[in-house]
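Q: Give me the 3D complex with zinc ion.
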Amino acid sequence: MKEYYKNSYLKEIDTKIINILDKDYILVKDIITYEEKGGQSSDIGLVNDKYEFITIVKDNDVYIKIDNNPFKVGDIINIKIDWNHRYNSMKIHSAQHLLSGLLYKYYNIQTKSVHMQNNFSIETDQKEIEKDIILDLEKRFNKAVSENKKIKSYFIDDDNIKLRRSIKVKENIRIVEIEDYDKIACGGLHVNSTSEIGPCYYLNSEKVRGHIRLFFIVGSLLDDKVSIWRKNSDFITKLTSSCDNKHIESIDKVFKEKKELEYKVIKYQKEIIENKLSNNILIEEVSDIDLNLYFQVTKNYEDVFICAIKKLDNKYNFIIIDKNNRINNLKDILIENNAKGSFKDNIYRGIIDFNILDLIRKNLNE
Ligand SMILES: [Zn+2]
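A: Here is the predicted complex, encoded as structure tokens.
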């Protein structure tokens, strides 16, 4: 008997084992453990406060599975479900119904599919949804939560009932109704009132199969997220010495200053390279200069020889610019020494296993 349909708040039960399959799969008389279905996750928990179980459907029955099951048919066992996990998935499921109900009632937007793990999402039937509508939806949601509307579930035999989404089944239909906001057929478990769901926060959206999919966060995951946001905000407040309504301005200012400084550093580095190039030859190892700067500096030089290397772990990045072919067979020399990279138009860039400065000096003097 599925006790969870009579009372979705049953956290534990003492019940009799009536069947065992494949040694580890246990079927009990009174089932309070919910199986994964309709996007809602399945229950986990403990048997006799000791044995971890998961919930699995086998042969159309809801079994719990314990690794190395020590029990036999006829035993009375205590089943305790992980209430945090279950209560959170009930909140997420009710939040999804409320959001889908509001989308339909106020904006005529239908729900195509839902995902209810962690940050839950609703795939709508729309190609685009304006941000204002989503923020308005979030407001309506939180208003409905504050109104403490009843959430009821019941079975009916009626094919004329008006539901958010029509169904083919005509008998034994399980209805989940959120007072004033939503009515739909659903086999999932829900909280008893909208106030239990708590606030909901819109995260972001993406396009899937040509439809907008909206992501939300609710329940304990939202609590976790809020503490991350608070931590981030405190960090930025400390870092920028600004209050939270000035964070964007402060960060923007910091990044602009950083960019200006980077620009200045590059300008100075270029000037240093130019100064060193007084006799048109430069051979050096550097640690803090982007090798591409040598290329940029010498673009307009007609006669220049540069070899600059930079250590990278146990190899060397190099750039050699030899506009007047001072080393005739430079490409061959590099290939012979296992250099990898691009060698064309008198510009040689790549990576090599050793410090090549002495080798280059030797060939340049020959
Ligand atoms: Zn549902």
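A quick observation: Helices lie at 83-107, 131-146, 194-197, 219-240, 247-276, 292-298, 330-336, 357-365.
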